[in-house]
Specification:
By secondary structure, the chain is of the alpha+beta class. The chain is about 20% helix and about 25% strand. It has helices at about 25-30, 85-100, 135-150, 170-175, and strands at about 25, 35-40, 45-50, 55, 60-65, 70, 75-80, 80-85, 110-115, 125, 130-135, 155-160, 180-185. The chain is globular and about 55 Å long.
């Protein structure tokens, strides 16, 4: 599909947000042949099969998928002898992980657009001790990823090849222009907490769900 960043106009939006019926984790587990058990009844629930393990907790959008923190669009809620989840989370996030065999063959990824975050007048974060800017590290990392992907036969396009400034809206527009199968924007985030490390992956929020940037649980 195409990559868009502009918000829909009021005229394009539905009259009201559709009401979705919550999904029983126990019932869904039976439907996909997964095991379900309480970790801490009635608060925390474990769902697992040969593909993945998911730990749900009532009232928390954060779940553990094979030990990795993943954020749902909506927090699981207590149900009748179970927890319930949003059908959007089930279909858009969890089903591909727990039942990939239910999906037909997909068009292979051929063209990948790599977007080095920031650039030009936008330096991003700065490491004052080393005197380096995020924009430069992002470009260096993108070039390294490009070389590895091209060695595997992918067509790779960069949104910027040098220290230039590109408006946010122009970045996905360049991906659309080359009919990209995948658009990846690479950044290097900063934190003052010494115990925080690793990789963060952000994806577009599914329609009718709020972003993980929301301060609501």
């Amino acid at each position: 599909g195409r990559i868009h960043t502009s918000a829909a106009t009021v005229a394009e939006l539905p009259a009201k947000t559709p009401v979705y019926q919550p999904v029983s984790v126990h019932a869904w587990a039976k439907a996909i042949g997964a095991e379900v058990s309480w970790v801490t009844k009635p608060k925390k629930l474990r769902l697992a099969n040969a593909f993945a393990e998911v730990i749900f907790e009532a009232g928390r959008r954060e779940v553990l998928v094979n030990g990795v923190r993943v954020f749902l669009g909506d927090a699981p809620q207590p149900g009748k002898r179970t927890l319930t989840i949003s059908p959007i989370d089930r279909d858009r996030l969890l089903l591909p992980l727990l039942a990939p065999h239910q999906f037909g063959p997909r068009q292979p990824v051929r063209t990948i657009v790599l977007d080095a975050g920031h650039g030009g007048k936008d330096k991003g974060k700065t490491n004052t001790d080393l005197g380096v800017h995020e924009k430069d590290l992002a470009l260096d990392l993108v070039r390294r990823v490009q070389a590895r992907l091209e060695a595997r036969g992918y067509r790779v396009v960069l949104t910027r090849k040098d220290d230039s400034f590109i408006e946010l809206g122009d970045r996905p527009a360049r991906a659309n222009a080359v009919d990209a199968d995948l658009f990846l924007s690479i950044h290097l985030n900063a934190t003052v907490a010494p115990t925080v490390n690793g990789v963060e992956n952000y994806a577009l929020t599914p329609q009718y769900q709020r972003s993980t940037a929301s301060d609501k649980s």
